[in-house]
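User: Please fill in residues for this 238-position structure.
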């Protein structure tokens, strides 16, 4: 039969034990090779840096594409005034609108590239020390993986909207056979237009789901922070 463990009846000892903070479990220090592997994995994030540099080159290519399309549009407009009888420079309002929508499409894809380059580098590679800079983007101050996903989803919806609007302009009255014959336009069918609309709606639902997940994660993070906050001591009622 075992004897009960003696307990201390010293009030000072009991008070000190009650007020002592809870110490987390202590672990043995890591072995040198474990720390080396951890640092190697941590520094492997720099392998993504060439990828973002490649996206900067893609951004430059889109600048060239934009200037080329703008030059062709200006050449078409000026040629229509200088040579009104020439069929080569003939254009309609729908043609100009499609060309402008093409320029807007290039700009929105360039904006998407900027968000991926800056936001992705800031989130997954290294911090960009531009705090307090007058040209710092507003969204960069609170960028994280969730915010970046929502902004990318919104940018993709904008690009999809431009393509859908171009489709509606080129289609015209598809059922009556009076669709305008626009030079350089594609041939559309009911099934093609239907699936393009469905894909656009899928993008919208995906963005709504990402925004809802981000909001729920922020809500749970706020509740956890409030639960960890120390409670004020309450005075004993007399």
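Assistant: Residues filled in for all 238 positions:
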């Amino acid at each position: 039969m075992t004897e009960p463990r003696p307990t201390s009846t010293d009030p000072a000892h009991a008070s000190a034990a009650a007020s002592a903070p809870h110490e987390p479990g202590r672990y043995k220090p890591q072995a040198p090779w474990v720390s080396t592997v951890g640092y190697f994995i941590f520094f492997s994030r720099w392998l993504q840096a060439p990828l973002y540099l490649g996206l900067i080159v893609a951004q430059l290519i889109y600048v060239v594409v934009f200037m080329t399309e703008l030059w062709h549009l200006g050449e078409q407009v000026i040629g229509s005034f200088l040579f009104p009888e020439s069929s080569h420079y003939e254009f309609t309002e729908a043609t100009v609108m499609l060309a402008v929508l093409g320029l807007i499409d290039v700009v929105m894809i360039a904006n998407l590239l900027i968000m991926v380059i800056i936001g992705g580098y800031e989130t997954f590679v290294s911090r960009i020390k531009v705090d307090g800079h007058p040209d710092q983007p507003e969204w960069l101050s609170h960028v994280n993986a969730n915010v970046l996903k929502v902004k990318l989803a919104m940018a993709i919806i904008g690009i999809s909207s431009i393509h859908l609007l171009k489709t509606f302009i080129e289609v015209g009255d598809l059922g009556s056979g009076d669709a305008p014959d626009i030079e350089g336009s594609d041939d559309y069918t009911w099934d093609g237009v239907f699936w393009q609309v469905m894909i656009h709606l899928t993008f919208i639902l995906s963005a709504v789901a990402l925004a809802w997940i981000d909001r729920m994660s922020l809500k749970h993070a706020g509740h956890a922070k409030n639960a960890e906050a120390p409670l004020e001591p309450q005075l004993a009622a007399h």
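For context: The chain has a mean pLDDT of 76.
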